[in-house]
Amino acid sequence: MRITCPLCGDRDRREFYYKGAAVALDRPEPDAGAEAWDEYVFLRDNPAGETRDLWYHADGCGAWLEVRRDTVTHAVLEARLAAEAAR
Amino acid sequence: MAELVAKSPCDGVLPLEIGSVAAREEDLGVITALLPYRAQGAALSERLKAAHGMAFPSPNRATGKAGARAIWAGREQALLLGPAPDPGLADHAALSDQSDAWTAVRLEGEAAEAVLARLVPVDLRGSVFKRGHTVRSQVAHMAGSVTRVGERAFLILVFRSMAATLVHDLKTAMEAVAARG
């Protein structure tokens, strides 16, 4: 498995650390209410298909990336800086 | 008073020469991490040019030359190798002195590329990785930095605490490449 880091280029999976679903990029406002916070903290999709994760380029440039990938085909579709995805 | 003697990271384990490849420790002088403040990248680059003669390197690139080099070291950071940093740089970037934090090894020789091919999961062949190119990647299992500084020469940086491990992994790879004749 390879991920194309927007800074470093095409790199092996071993350079990256996997965080999990990219929910941290959509953090609710403090007063969003219990339901929104319950969903943010506890509820995760488990898609057969396209998913968005956060990966850390630990042994590369040190950037957090938002990676779109397919859990069925294992294809990595896109990777961009989490800083840009969060804007 | 005790006499304290400074030792270099690879004291006692380098130099090493196996087959056509030599590894020796580099004394880089002062090492400073440059971390530009938001939207200050261009101004920092100008100041760096005026003070030390090289631009702030773009990703995967190194600028300057032996004695005063800047190598890209990650997202929005570079390492200034050699000169003590001009105080004016601090107007545009956070500076941190890392002189004692890194192990620097120069790997040179006919088969240096073949040695690194066993350690670094990135294509470092001369056709794609030319002088002035750099990568942040793994060296064996360590986070490191590899820069091409000559036609057959590379500058390898890992954290200082990893010096003996780096030399061990380099030695193993150099022996394996040499054994193939």
TrEMBL record, chain A:
Q: Which InterPro entries match?
A: SoxD, SoxD_sf
Per the UniProt entry, what are the Gene Ontology biological process annotations, in alphabetical order? tetrahydrofolate metabolic process
| UniProt-listed Pfam families | SoxD
Q: Which GO terms describe its molecular function?
A: sarcosine oxidase activity
Q: What is this protein called?
A: Sarcosine oxidase subunit delta
> From what organism does this protein derive?
Antarcticimicrobium luteum
From TrEMBL, chain B:
Gene3D superfamilies named in the record: Probable tRNA modification gtpase trme, domain 1 (3.30.1360.120)
Q: Which SUPFAM superfamilies match?
A: Folate-binding domain (SSF103025)
Top-level lineage group = Bacteria
Q: Spell out the protein name for this chain.
A: Sarcosine oxidase subunit gamma
